[in-house]
Amino acid sequence: MAVTVDIKALLEAGVHFGHKTSRWHPKMAPYIHSKRQESHIIDLVKTVEALDKALPFLTSVAASGKQVLFVGTKKQAKDVVKAAATSVDQPYVTERWIGGMLTNVNTVNQQIKKLKDLEKRLESGDLEKRYNKLEVQRFQEEIEELNIKYGGIKHLNGRPGAVVVLDVMVDANAVREANVLGIPVVGVVDTNVDPSPVQYVVPGNDDAIKGISLLLDYFTAAVAEGAKKKEA
User: CB of 73 within 8 A of CB of 95?
Assistant: First the structure.
């Protein structure tokens, strides 16, 4: 059963509030409904139409067995993005996007292998057998540091089938790398952003946590639907 989008819920979550008219990007004109007190109002009918295309796509990606990478490094969005991705067992990046996360796979995989090896050795007691307390503590600190950088993509199996980006301006590097590799991007695009690099443009407020959380609910529901189809 396809995920149904509720336009009233989008309205209540403030997804329609754009940026100041002085900061708008002309390419967002088709998605703008009107102006209110020097700010643009996003046309939620267009948002619903966009979600009606993006959600079945995410379902098809998950149904094919490919992963969906969730990206949201903006301070106020980190926790909800991580929780959403984890809820559907998908990879995520919520700390700084490190250059080459998608395009420089060899270097990134080396770091992830190092992280997994250290975690395994710590868990098995091997580090405690071989090193003193201070040295073990240093290993623990290294594990924590590597987890901050790569923990969310530790179980990323090769190239994801899609990248969901909650702020395409803040995480422009993620969009750029996905474009280089031909990975489709589902992006929440506010009125101040160029939508051109995004294959599935979802016009909406990219600042309000309530709105971001609601959109994430839709994205994860679509992924969960795909996972069910894969199992069936």
Answer: yes
The residues near 215 (Cβ < 8 Å, ≥ 6 apart) are 15, 51, 166, 188, 202, 204
How many whole angstroms separate alpha carbon 101 and alpha carbon 76?
22
Please give the DSSP secondary-structure letter assigned to residue 2.
P
- Spatial contact of 147 and 115, defined as CB atoms under 8 Å apart: yes
Residues 40/191, Cβ–Cβ less than 8 Å: yes
- Name the pairing type of β-strands 17-20 and 39-42: antiparallel
CB-based contacts of 232, cutoff 8 Å, min separation 6: none
Q: What is the pLDDT of residues 78-126, one digit of tens each?
A: 999 999 999 999 999 999 999 999 999 899 999 999 999 999 999 999 9
Helix and strand tally (H, E) in the chain? 8, 8
Question: How far apart (Å, rounded) are the C-alpha atoms in residues 120 and 124?
Answer: 6
Q: 């600190």: which residue's tokens?
A: 141
- pLDDT digit string (tens) for 148-159? 999 999 999 999
User: What is the Cα–Cα distance from 31 to 41, expressed in whole angstroms?
Assistant: 9
The length of the chain in residues reads: 232
